[in-house]
Amino acid sequence: MTDIIAQLKQGSEAAFSQLVAQWQGMVYNTALGILQNTADAEDVAQEVFMQVHESIGTFKGEAQISTWLYRITVTKCLDHLRKKNRKKRWGKMYSLFGQQNELIIDPPDFHHPGVALANKERADLLFKAIARLPDSQKAAFVLHKLEGLSSKEIAGVMDASISAVEGLLHRAKQNLRLQLEDYYHSEE
Amino acid sequence: MKTRRDISQEIENTLSSIDGVQRAEPGDFFFTRLQARMQRSGAADAWERFIAIVTRPSIAIAGVLLILAVNGIMFIQLKPSTERTEQAMLQQDLEDEYQLGITTTFYDFDKPE
Question: Is ipTM strictly over 0.85?
Answer without folding.
Answer: no
